[in-house]
Amino acid sequence: MKFTNYCLSSEGAEVILATSSDEKYPPENIVDGRSETFWTTTGMFPQEFIISFHKCVTISKLTVQCYLVQVLRIEKSVSQDPVDFEQCIERELQFKEGELQTEEFSFPEIQATYLRFIILSAFDAFVSVHKMIAEGIVKDI
Asked: Which positions fall inside the F5/8 type C domain (predicted)?
């Protein structure tokens, strides 16, 4: 069985909504697979973004690489449209000055066609999201 990262544009993942956008740091950077590029928020919280997988995927582990995020909530949807989200997890993240936060979320396998990430609060006025890794296997609905 081969595990894959479904949060990559090369796997068909797409950021279909982001509550803020800066042309230098667009939301698409979240799914390009590189830590050097990122999406940045432009002010107030909460901020959120939604990743679409274009098919139902089964995820066993999520890794989020970000900076200055204090509280993060992750929700999933298996609908054909980005509606009917259910909360998977909410966690307060640890912050170390000058270091990217790499937070792993392990749970029993979840199925999702969409994941919504809500940044509820931050350690500063702006945060950045660098990379998402959603490990899992494809299952047909």
From this structure: 18-121
